[in-house]
Amino acid sequence: MEPTQLAENLTPNQQSPAPELEDPEDPRDESPDSSDTVVLSLFPCTPEAVNPEADASASSLHGSFLKHSTTLTNRQRGNEVSALPATLDSLSIHQLAAQGELSQLKDHLRKGDNLINKPDERGFTPLIWASAFGEIETVRCLLDWGADPHILAKERESALSLASMGGYTDIVRLLLERDVDINIYDWNGGTPLLYAVRGNHVKCVEALLARGADLTTEADSGYTPMDLAVALGYRKVQQVMESHILKLFQSTLGPADPE
């Protein structure tokens, strides 16, 4: 289960054809060709028109993808059994973390051998995988077991950035409680706030701003969070940032002097 090579820059590139978005209420549905994998975009690519707020889901866009078994889709649909035991036994600790298979994941962790922060070929730890796929209970479990939320993958991907890209606000808050760098940047110059804006995740943007995310940081493409919101037509995200800037400005002025 290796992610493909990342190729997309953090730019709107509005002239490219807009990809189709999957149902925002169930972004992990099988792809139309009924293949045995579903995809989750990690990094920005060409957007469609303004997308409704989907903090509990991730926009499934074309570009650079992570792939995982449709057992996750079945579990998300409410099926009691997500996969046959034989199938689960064959999964790595990283796959189990991505799919939220807590029982089998804990069995792996009990074996020791420093598996809690074990990186895969790309440098992704179980916590990074769980954060990327929005598995909040798995994230909680891994943090309780001592997973390090500060670890960066080989291209500086972080659990916080990938959770922000998916709009997983609760996971973002959990990670921020562990004092991770809120302005951490990756190979693309992308920060958690830039990725939250890029995904049009209003609540996630609010959470990051409330904890002091830097609005002035530019991606390698030269776009700031506000630039992206304006270029992509994300009005709600833009309004959240404008309101935040106004509050910052007012706080520097202090209370008005009585006449």
From TrEMBL:
Region Disordered: start-end pairs: 1-38
InterPro entries in the record: Ankyrin_rpt, Ankyrin_rpt-contain_sf, DNA-bd_RFXANK
Residue ranges, compositional bias (Polar residues): 1-15
SMART domains with a match to the protein in the record: ANK
BP terms from Gene Ontology: Ras protein signal transduction
Keyword terms, alphabetized: ANK repeat, Cytoplasm, Repeat
ANK repeat boundaries on the chain: 122-154, 155-187, 188-220
Annotated Pfam families: Ank_2
Main location: cytoplasm
GO CC annotation, single: nucleoplasm
Record localization: Cytoplasm
Gene Ontology molecular functions: DNA-binding transcription activator activity, RNA polymerase II-specific; histone deacetylase binding; RNA polymerase II transcription regulatory region sequence-specific DNA binding
Presence of keyword Repeat: yes
Protein name per UniProt: Regulatory factor X-associated ankyrin-containing protein
Gene: Rfxank
